[in-house]
Amino acid sequence: MKAFFAIMKQTMRSAMRSKVFHVLFVLIILAVFLLPMTVSGDGTAIGLVQISLTYSLNVVVALISTTTLWLACSLLSREIEAYNLHMVVCKPCPRWLIWLGKWAGVFVMHVVILLISCMIIYFLIQWRVSRGKFSDEERERLEMETLVGRRTFYPEPINLGQRIEQEYQRRLASGSVEQQHNP
Question: Domains in the chain: how many in total?
Answer without folding.
Answer: 1
